Amino acid sequence: MSSSAESKIALAKTVLSTVGSVAATAMLVRTIVHDYIPPEFHEYIFFGLKNIFTKFSNELTMVIDEFDGLVNNEIYEAAEIYLGNKLSPNTHRLKISKPEKEKNFNIAMERNEEVTDIYNGQKFKWIWLCIQTEAKHFYNPRDMNSTLKSEVRSFELTFHNKNKDLALNSYLPYIIKEAKLQKHENKTIKIHTVDYENIYNLHNMWKPVNLDHPAIFETIAMELDQKDMILKDLERFVKRKEYYRKVGKAWKRGYLLFGPPGTGKSSLIAAMANYLNFDIYDLELTELRRNSDLRKLLVATANKSILVVEDIDCTIDLQDNLANRAVAATSHGFHQQESKVTLSGLLNFIDGLWSSCGDERIIIFTTNHIEKLDPALLRPGRMDVHIHMAYCTPCGFKLLASNYLGIKEHKLFKEIEEIIDIAMVTPAEVAEQLLKEDEIEHSLKGLINFLNAKRKEKEEAKAKKVEITQVESVNEKKESVENGIKEREEEN
Fold first, then answer.
1. Which of 78, 203, 232, 343 could join 179 in a cystine, given CB atoms 3.0 to 4.6 angstroms apart?
2. Are residues 240 and 163 in the same domain?
3. Which domain holds residue 470?
C-alpha cells in the first residue's frame, strides 16, 4: 500500500513538473514574441500555431461575418437574435437593452462570450468575435458611431466534422426561421415616413417612429359582417405564401378604403397593422419628382409591411403642379429636369415587375371620392378589396358606446338608433359627442341633440335642393316658351 501511495505521489509530481515546464515555456515564448517580434507579425504567428493544432482536431469552424461586402449577412443577423435566448450556465456576460416605448428587453451575447447549443442531439459552439481594425478606409455600414465604425464583427460556429451537412442543410436554416419568428413576435410596430433629404440613400430613405395607435378590430365602429370579411381576408393572405408562388403572383394584397372623412380609414389601417404586427410605410406621392423614386422606395420597404398611400385622388390631381414646380425651379436658375410621377409609373409600382421585390406586403390606398379614380387603378391585382367606409350605423353606435361609456344598453339607445341613419354622421363625430360629458345620461342626451341638429340640416338641405330643382325646371319651361315665341315672330 505504501508502495502504491509513493507511486501516485511520484506520478503527481511528474504531472505537475510537466505542467510547470509547459507553462514556463509558454510564458517564455510569449515574452520573446512580445519583446523581440514586431506586433505586425503577432497575428501571423498565432494564426500559424492555431492552424497546427487545428490539423489534429476533428472539429470544423465556420466564420459568419456581419456583412457580405456592403450587404447585411442574413445568417449573422439571425444568429444574433437566436442566440439571445440561448443562455448557458457558462455564459457570464450579456448585452441587454430596451429602447424607449418598446415592450421587450433585447438580449444579446457580449464580445468573446461562448454559447453552446444542442440541435438534434449534436453540439454546436458559438463565439462572438469583435476585432478593432486600424485600416483608414474601413467602416462598418451599419454603425456610424466613431467607436464602432472600424470594428469587424463575426460569429464562429464550431462543431464536429461529421455534422457539416446537418449544419448547412438543417441547423442554419432552422436558426433563420426561428429568428424571423422571434423578431416578428417581439418587435414594436413602427410607422415609417420618407426622409426626402436621404431619398437616394437606400438604407436611410425611410425614417421610423414607434406606432402607439391603440386601434384594434374589437374597437373599430364597423358592421360586423364587413369586419369579419376583412379579418378572414387578412388571415387567408398571410397563410398563402406557397399558393402565390404556385400561381405565379407576387405575394401582396391591395386594399382601397373609400368614404367620407371621419369614417375611420386611418383607424382601420392601424388596426390591421396591430393585428398582423406589420410596420406601416406612409408614402406621400406629391413630394416625389419621378417614377424612379417610387421604385427605390418600394425596394427599401421591409417584408411583412403595410404601404399606405392616402388620398390617392388628390395625388393624381396634383400632377400638373409637380410639372409646374420643376419648370419654376429651372426659371430660378436651377437646372432641373421636368419630371413627375405618372399614372403609368404608379400602376407599375402597384402591379408591375417592381412590385414583386419583396414578400407579404399589403398596399392600402384611401380616397374620399372613388368616382375620381382611373378605372385602371381599381381592377383586381391592384386594388383587390374595396372597403366602403360608411357613416355610423346603429351597430357602430353601440360599439362606440361600449368603448367610450362602458355600457351595452340604455333607455336612450332606441331614440338614438332611430335617428342616426337619417342624420348621416361619421363614427368620428359620434365619438366626439360621447367624449364631451363624463355623465353617461348627459353624454347620450348631448348626442341626441347633435343628431337632431344634423338631421334638421339634412332635411333643410334636401328641401332647398328640391326647391332649386323646381325653380330651375320652371325657368327652363319659361325659357323654352320664350324661345318658341321668338322663333315664331322671326318666321312672321
1. 78
2. no
3. 394-480
